[in-house]
Write a structure and sequence with these properties.
Elements: H1 6-13, E1 16-20, E2 23-27, E3 38-40, H2 51-58, E4 60-66, E5 75-77, E6 80-82, H3 84-95, E7 99-106, H4 109-117, E8 123-127, E9 138-139, E10 144-153, H5 154-161, H6 166-171, E11 176-180, H7 185-192, E12 197-201, H8 204-213, E13 218-222, H9 223-232, E14 240-256, H10 261-271, H11 280-284
Parallel strand pairs: 3-7, 4-7, 4-8, 11-12, 11-13
Antiparallel strand pairs: 1-2, 5-6, 8-14, 9-14, 10-13, 10-14
Length: 288
């Protein structure tokens, strides 16, 4: 059942032809034998005229994830990368009869975007469109949309509010705001909380610990990550509070090169099906 969307996805695309050196090379949409998943180190830049030509000639799809595990999206177990996003990658690669190669040598999400722009990988996973990033790469339609969210230290927020309602305080928030450094949240924080004192951390766990200790007033990410803090230790609810924003959506998309318009169209078709999407309840389920 893992690949239950494969027929409907490929029925609409059938076989796709790639123009190579003035001729046409056709990659069959079905009938190839299953390919083994491989995990690789950083690869050299793709040198073919287009990445689709590379697919036709090499028969592999190179996807990038950051090196630090982020369960249940992606994580290493028994020497293999697995997770919900890895399953998306497998389904997409198998729909096109391509061998999947996973590169996890990037240290930050911004580095993933840079590698897509430099054509060192075909697709960057767990990528978020921002104004600066869309100038470097293209993004597919979102396969996951999650509300923006804050995890607040109750005591520190009470000091800051001085009796005012939390809604009023957040509208003009000027306290300390923790984010994941070198990520899309740099831009989101500057745009949505321009008066805040933004503090970057190398990990979300670092943000959570700083909020819990009162070193910072709140942490800023999407609702999955704020809820994950309390799910891992429900007693923290005595000290911490979650506030989510239904009018602000964090989109997770596939990052591809600006040159790779056909790949982007294929990815958009893929995420239009239920099995090409992830939802908040689905993400929280493994942690229950």
């Amino acid at each position: 059942m893992m690949y239950s969307n494969r027929r409907s996805f490929m029925d609409r695309w059938g076989r796709w032809a790639l123009s190579v050196a003035g001729g046409a090379s056709v990659l069959a949409a079905q009938g190839a034998s299953p390919k083994k998943l491989s995990t690789g180190t950083q690869v050299d830049a793709l040198t073919q005229p287009t990445d689709l030509s590379w697919f036709a000639n090499k028969g592999e799809l190179i996807v990038g994830f950051v090196s630090e595990d982020d369960a249940p999206f992606f994580y290493e177990k028994g020497g293999e990368t697995m997770g919900l996003e890895l399953e998306l990658a497998k389904r997409f690669a198998q729909s096109l009869n391509l061998q999947l190669k996973v590169d996890r040598s990037a240290k930050t999400y911004q580095e993933i975007v840079d590698w897509v722009a430099d054509k060192k990988i075909h697709i960057g996973f767990h990528s978020t469109p921002t104004f600066k990033r869309v100038q470097k790469v293209s993004f597919s339609n979102a396969y996951c949309k999650l509300p923006h969210s804050l995890i607040l230290n109750r005591v520190e927020m009470a000091k800051l509010s001085n009796g005012s309602g939390i809604e009023k305080v957040l509208r003009q928030f000027s306290g300390t705001l923790g984010i994941l450094a070198n990520s899309a949240w740099d831009e989101f924080a500057a745009e949505n909380f321009p008066k805040a004192k933004v503090v970057g951390f190398p990990s979300w766990e670092g943000v959570a610990n700083a909020v819990l200790s009162g070193r910072i007033v709140c942490g800023y990410r999407n609702e999955f990550y704020t809820r994950k803090i309390l799910k891992s230790n429900p007693s923290r609810a005595l000290s911490l509070k979650i506030v989510s924003f239904n009018d602000l959506s964090h989109e997770l998309s596939f990052a591809v090169s600006h040159d790779n318009k056909i790949l982007k169209e294929l990815l958009n078709e893929f995420v239009s099906h239920r099995t090409g999407q992830l939802h908040l309840e689905h993400l929280l389920r493994p942690m229950v």
